[in-house]
Here is the input.
Amino acid sequence: MIRAYGKYRAAIQYVSVIVICLTTAILSGAQDSKYKPEKQQIPSPECLTLRGAWEGGYVPCTDATHQQWLNDITHWRMERKIRVGLDDARYRMPALEWTQSSFIQPQMMVQDRYFYDPVAHKYTVDRYLDDLETRFGGIDAVLIWPTYPNMGIDDRNQHDMIRTMPGGLAGVRQMVEDFHRRGVRVLFPMMMWDQGTRDPGKSWPEAIAETMKEIDADGINGDTQDGVPLAFSLASDKLGHPLAFEPEGSPSDEALAWDVMTWGQYSFPFVPQVDKYKWLESRHMVNISHRWARNKTDDLQFAFFNGVGWESWENVWGIWNGITPRDGEATRRMATIERGVAPFLISATWEPFYPTHLYGVFASRWPLGEQTVWTIVNRNEYDVTGRQMSVPYEEGMRYFDLYHGVELTPERDGNESVLVFPIETHGFGAVLATKGAPDAKVQELMAKMKTMTSTPLSSYSDQWKALPQQLVEIAPSKAALATPEGMVKIPAGDYIFKVQGIEIEGFNDIGVDVQYPWEDSARRFHEHRMHINAFYMDKYPVTNAEFKKFLDATHYHPADDLNFLKDWKNGTYPDGWAKRPVTWVSQDDARAYAAWVGKRLPHEWEWQYAAQGGDANRLYPWGDKWEASNVPTPVKGRSLTAPDEVDAHAAGASPFGVVDMVGNVWQWTDEYVDEHTRGGILRGGSYYQPQGSIWYFPQAYRNDQHGKLLLMAPSYDRSGTLGFRCVQDAQ
Here is the structure.
């Protein structure tokens, strides 16, 4: 009986083990990898991470542990490609081969002052590229960004924002051609969250494919997207203009078949990790994006180790996060080598973490035919000189230090050759193994690198600096002796000017928002006690009827006239619009009108003082409580209607009697500039509220908030919700 019970118990245990094994296999998808990807990165061998005694101590890697790790991730790759049915057809398309060597790609705001000259009314592509060539060795592609954060100020959708760039689509196409002439590919973004502005009237895949073909763009970045759906690739292929799609986030492994590029928004431990997509498909290009980081060592070293690229993003929504001279020089060196050995970096037999002798030095091996390249990074905070790595001895094989541009003399150690060379602190290395003399291209690369690296990276400054901003001067108007018609006197007074920017991103980092004349840097939150001299302010925003008088008297017509008075026809405004505020006017248009009537645009603090009064910090012109009846009813559809008449909401007047300050149309005030960006300060908010996304241009209805519109050119800056009012100095 006891014996029978024992047999029964043993049988139950056996069945339990089988059930557990089957369950585990099902839950893991029959995948027994120990190093499964974490988001977009495959973990490194455990033995490469230094551990304290309380964590079990450090155990160095061996050839066996390296091979075990490599076998594990190689098996994972093989099985994963089978599971997702990975098709490499798009990687074999000649039209998309450029992506496989597109290592350096900035995200460039169209408002960058190096890109467009609003005075000369022309794109300055050569100036933009020459600056990047000087600072970090140039670029391979550019992501041109014309949409967020301005999009949503009116009903222009993402492609309307491109159409309103200077010269319209014809001008944009010529600008793209200027980049192509310099060997630079061009991408634009797409925002699938843009479902609250003008309906394009067709599917987004069709609309995007058609617009990109018209301007001859090369690719699309999928903003906020975890993968760009196949429909977009098929639409561009159908038009005979294949596009490279590059999602911001991590697509499904299946989408790797049609998304031939991605961003890499990594975590950055001391030991590099392997990019999952590059490992699955070695021809896939990743551009590492770490927009707010002020030190780019992690970005550049992880890119070099993985044989991929970097999103050299400096103008982040008009906030300058420029790279330091040290990072610029490191970029130049890294990119020069990657471009020089690009065919190696798509090797299907790539071997990450090729064994090295010294801790903190990590190498990837890239075989190509009878030659091999290693890309190497030193993650240590100190220089590393000496025996770096061993390779199997091979008669006639020569080794070249590509980084320093010299040939190496290996040390023979039994059946191995030991390579000895230096790598500087947080630096880079590259080695070529080849039989016979290197070809002319490699010799040219070595000569260039030898000159470049004669100066150590440590001699370049790694000090990050914010860009200073300046307020654009507003010249005083002719002083009035008495209150001009249609204006309200704002008496002199001491005033605490307190305001904050409403930028969606940037938190309170230095460089966000603006730098007032009394501040030493741009920042989001501002407070300043000041004395304001008496002045006169228009009781209402300038109306269509008033602006037409200006046109009739002066025959004013701007040189950049795209979108000028877009809602007018045949030289006049629509019937019934006489008392509505004029819109679709640029800051220059508004300044021209103000000069004609002997006035000027207000400083922002004058506008806010007139809205708040001198005796209290009211949240709104009429008080501290929002009153919906004091402003127009918001329009939340996909198309603009029209602003209300300027005198429709008299109950919303400020303590001084100024009307229509909030909720009807935004109003131009000051302009700020730095070396790369211009920004117009807008006050009052508008009646238009596109729905469906947090990324649209936010409203600033409160007296202590302002909007900052990034400025490019009058055609682009004009908006259907943006008008102005004038002020005049008092004697």
Observations:
- DSSP finds 15 helices and 33 strands in the chain.
- The radius of gyration is 31 Å.
- Residues 607 and 669 are 8 Å apart (CA to CA).
- The first helix runs from residue 2 to 27.
